[in-house]
Automatic annotation (TrEMBL):
The keyword rRNA-binding does not apply. Keywords: Membrane, Transmembrane, Transmembrane helix. The chain crosses the membrane at residues 6-27, 39-60, 112-129, 141-162, 187-213, 220-239, 276-294, 324-341, 348-366, 386-407. This is DUF2029 domain-containing protein.
């Protein structure tokens, strides 16, 4: 349980620091006024990503854990020229392993994968500034960036967990920014398709709402279809139908989600693990995301993409049976910068609690043996299972709260 203990202590320390920053909000806003945003974000990356990386992996000598093992297996084999899906298994899109392999050309070590994740996180923040700069003052953006850097859901999941989910936000925002700059739907659609090829299959979920609000639908679809056809023409001769390996992830039962929470109260009679729940989860998450995008179709891009993104992917986190709490990293940026009102103590308190629970729960659940609660008696079997189940319930409830917040409440940009 050492990693659970470390994550808990680190998360609590980070929340205390975040609380101190919030307490001195006026001071930090004054400090950030007139500062060069890219330079400030770089300094933030050094202080809150590079320094922790050096402290954990170089000075303390800890070895990367968790998903890094899988990323290392993929990236190292890809760097040696092996073929994804044929020579090694991968739950990710076809170019993901090769992108990691490029980083390993500079330093052939699992720690390089962690460092790469911190750089991608920094890039996601940088492009977010370009997205939000018309809505947020530079000082307010930097204040929220500082809070983002300190939140356990970003720092711990990035530096300790080496999660890649923020990449999807990065690629979609880059595509939007190029669309704004060039006006070319073909460039926009190509970058979205490239993002899908470089990350994971769940990025396809946001493409449905984006298609619904797209005015130039034919060119959008044709570009995406062309990229898909070329990809299939390359992959199929090499690996056959093995390129569908990422779809197997939907069969993996994880927690917390609505099914894991409800299952014991129905005495395992709701068909947990069955494929029809995957389709129901997809329909719900894509449905609410599409509804949100259509509802906001006449608003500005930052509002449209931020609120749609949070509604879609936060919903997915609790309705998809293969989702787990680390997915907070997928929608944390728009949640922090554009949904939560940092002057509202209730919203802030819920967000801080949400962060620490999401960071700790995945490791705790996994080290308990990934329990599946079949009856209420399974919950009360031990104090450990009671704690795990209570954490699951709170995460599901808080996720629902933030979906509701993004969908219905007025967004406070300043």
């Amino acid at each position: 349980m050492s990693i659970v203990f470390i994550k808990t202590i680190l998360s609590m320390a980070l929340l205390l620091l975040a609380g101190a920053v919030l307490w001195k909000r006026a001071f930090f806003l004054k400090i950030f006024a007139g500062k060069n945003v890219p330079i400030a974000l770089t300094v933030g990356w050094v202080l809150f990503r590079l320094v922790p990386f050096i402290a954990v992996y170089l000075l303390a000598g800890f070895a990367p854990t968790s998903d890094v093992f899988g990323f290392w297996d993929e990236g190292s084999k890809a760097s040696m020229g092996q073929v994804v899906y044929r020579d090694f298994w991968s739950p990710y899109s076809p170019l993901y392993a090769y992108y990691l392999g490029l980083w390993l050309k500079f330093w052939y070590d699992p720690r390089m994968i962690v460092l790469a994740m911190t750089v991608m996180d920094a890039l996601a923040l940088w492009v977010s500034w370009h997205l939000y700069r018309a809505k947020l003052s530079d000082s307010n953006f930097l204040f929220k960036a500082l809070l983002y850097y300190l939140l356990p859901g970003s720092l711990v999941l990035c530096v300790v967990g080496a999660q890649e989910d923020v990449w999807m936000w990065l690629f979609v925002i880059v595509a939007f920014l190029f669309r704004q700059r060039t006006g070319r739907v073909e460039v926009y659609a190509f970058l979205l398709a490239l993002g899908l090829l470089l990350t994971k299959a769940i990025l396809v979920l946001i493409l449905v709402p984006l298609f619904i609000i797209e005015k130039e639908k034919l060119r959008f679809v044709l570009t995406m279809a062309l990229v898909g056809a070329v990809s299939l023409a390359v992959l199929y001769p090499l690996v056959g139908w093995e390129f569908t390996q990422p779809l197997d992830e939907a069969k993996v039962l994880r927690a917390p989600n609505l099914l894991s929470v409800l299952n014991p109260w129905f005495f395992n009679k709701i068909g947990v693990g069955e494929k029809f729940w995957n389709w129901i989860g997809l329909l719900i998450s894509v449905g609410v995301g599409s509804w949100m995008a259509w509802r906001l179709r006449s608003t500005d891009i930052p509002t449209l993409i931020s609120r749609t993104w949070v509604v879609l992917y936060a919903t997915m986190m609790v309705v998809q049976q293969s989702a787990y709490s680390n997915y907070i990293f997928l929608f944390l940026i728009p949640l922090v910068f554009y949904v939560v009102d940092w002057r509202d103590k209730k919203q802030v308190g819920y967000l801080l609690l949400f962060n620490i629970l999401c960071v700790v729960e995945a490791s705790y659940w996994w080290r308990l043996g990934m329990p599946k609660y079949l009856t209420p008696a399974d919950i009360w079997a031990s104090s450990s299972s009671v704690l795990d189940y209570v954490i699951q319930v709170v995460i599901v409830v808080l996720t629902g709260y933030f979906v509701w917040l993004a969908a219905t409440k007025k967004v406070v940009s300043e």
